[in-house]
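Entry 14. Ran structure prediction on the chain below.
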Amino acid sequence: MRRYFESLRPADVTAIHSVPDGIFLVRVDRAQYRWHKQKPYYEIRFAVLKPRHLTGCFMTGRLYCTPRAMWKLSWFLRDFGYDPELLGKNEIDDKALIDLWGVVKVSEVTVHGISVLNFDGFAPAARWDELTVFTDRNPRGSEVSS
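Output, structure tokens:
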């Protein structure tokens, strides 16, 4: 029996550890709904497109689907150009999430002693140039908004 483990490839391991907090132009590489009794969530894996020196790196994080967290999921869907008709019906098609592009602001946080990637903000891909000009002056603490 063979099992596939994403982190076995040396290039991926160094890339994952080298992704700093900041703003990235990304593409949704994988999206999977994960049921949890108290906190269901989407596990989203982004492929980094820019900045160029991190192209090919992957970032994985969670977008929770609890009533209190739906605002962030809606923000992600809207800014990444998810199908407005499905959004209007309150439906998410996992396959329709793949290959959506946008800008994401990430930070690393520690929860219960475990380091996790936090999605702090989203913006449409068309705003990438505008946002990177802003972050070149202030790489930390800048905010992505729409």
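Strands lie at 22-34, 41-50, 58-64, 101-111, 114-123. Will compare against last week's run tomorrow.
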